[in-house]
Amino acid sequence: MSGSPAVIGSLDPWFGGDVVAGVCCVLAPNPSAMTLDGTNTWILWGNGPAVIVDPGPNDPEHLAAVAAELAQRELVPAEVLLTHGHADHSAGARMFAARWDVPVRALDPTHRLGSEGLLDGQRIRQGDLELEVIATPGHTSDSLSFHLPQADAVLTGDTVLGRGTSVVAWPDGSLTDYLTSLQRLAELASEHSLDRVLPGHGPTLTRPASLLAEYRAHREERLDQVRAAIAAGAKSVTDIVERVYQPLPAGVLPAARASAAAQWAHLHQVGEVAPPADWSN
What's the pLDDT band for 7 if we cut at 50, 70, 90? Predict the structure, then answer.
């Protein structure tokens, strides 16, 4: 689950392919209002085995496309990493693991295949390929990003997208956590002079610092709109959606409801407003 109608990032169509040396995207055939062009499955490599990030949906056609890409480059994967457990990123994990007899590593133990998980600050090495695990909860509680120094890049899963903005998948997701994660990514981009975002959906993007500032500004604008709606008499999440999120593109009403609930929950958590009488309405 991913996008919202905000126009942030690139509006160009995205087909995957080579990005920089040692980084290739195989685009899964699952486009939708929520997955944009489809799920990005990332193949990363250096002078050793490859790493696959987000195997995508449970789709044999996609598995075959990834296998063909690896074979063309004479690469063999050593492990599969998940940015989070949503099915459009993780449902193909078991199929990938069986195809190459490799572990699947994730923050959430329920999505792991094998004994090793992923932890904030952990470094993953395959030959001269190195990734640093960055905990970025908010979209979901188990969301991770991966700093890729060799490409001056960060893989962001659904925390930052190539087009639009991410849904905070309340109640598992948290806007309070999400805002903290955006700040952490901004600090990472500044500290390491990053110049590329490799998202879970949509095109790759440059200027991470500016992009993250846009993301933060969009969230603050939405929060102001929700504050105003509550002050004007909104009594429910449905009221917020009707006052703040119209018109809605087809297929994104559940995402709008989740984000509206997440915003109200954040304002309640920081002591600004009372909770609605019924979170489900």
Answer: low
